[in-house]
Design brief:
This protein is mostly helical and 207 residues long. It is built from nine helices and no strands. The longest helix has 32 residues.
């Protein structure tokens, strides 16, 4: 007569444990994706830059990429085609950015930076290569350089996503919370920031 209550108790316990496991996985995913240097950006036509900022409680900057230069076959073909286009027009900012994006995909930040800095010179009024360059500088272990590049971008346009990323650098890597707070407040007051960015900004201000 005690068999059914025992089975029910075990079944309930198993269900509860499974539910807790699912909740834990969801919580961990949220934690490790909440604070990122590069979110979905609001700059029209910008190639999505590669590379993420570690969690807010990370003790140090990411180490510079030490894996060496390695492209897969598709990336190598893309580089060959883009380099051919670049030989025809060495100052084509679009081609330079596309080359930078290929190397960022391969996490070869230093080579990406070479082409992106040329793109900045070729198109000084375009915020996209500056955004991508800032990502490279961060991933190479240079948060101060990334912040400086973001600042130069904001001199051209008060882009909310760039402000958010710069604020994260100031808050978590450069120990300048006052500057971070000012940028968060500017985002909140902006009419161009999207809903998701507003939510993340408010969450950062509450921490």
């Amino acid at each position: 007569m005690n068999t059914f209550p025992l089975i029910s108790t075990r079944l309930i316990s198993a269900v509860l444990l499974a539910s807790l496991a699912v909740m834990l996985i969801i919580s961990m995913r949220a934690t490790f994706t909440e604070v990122s240097l590069v979110e979905e950006n609001n700059v029209a036509g910008m190639p999505e830059p590669r590379g993420n900022m570690p969690p807010a409680n990370a003790p140090s900057m990411p180490a510079p990429n030490s894996m060496g230069f390695a492209l897969n076959d598709k990336q190598s073909d893309s580089v060959s085609q883009l380099m051919e286009k670049l030989r025809e027009n060495p100052n084509d900012s679009k081609t330079l950015m596309e080359l930078g994006d290929v190397f960022m995909t391969a996490e070869d930040w230093s080579r990406a930076q070479v082409f992106l800095k040329r793109a900045i010179v070729s198109a000084p009024g375009d915020v996209r290569p500056r955004f991508m360059t800032a990502v490279c500088e961060f991933r190479m272990g240079n948060p101060a350089g990334a912040a400086e590049t973001f600042e130069s971008l904001l001199d051209l346009k008060r882009e909310p996503q760039a402000m958010y990323n710069l604020a994260l650098l100031y808050k978590y890597h450069l120990q300048q919370p006052t500057k971070a707070k000012a940028l968060f407040e500017e985002i909140i007051a902006s009419t161009e920031a999207g809903v998701d960015l507003m939510i993340k900004t408010k969450q950062e201000m509450e921490k």
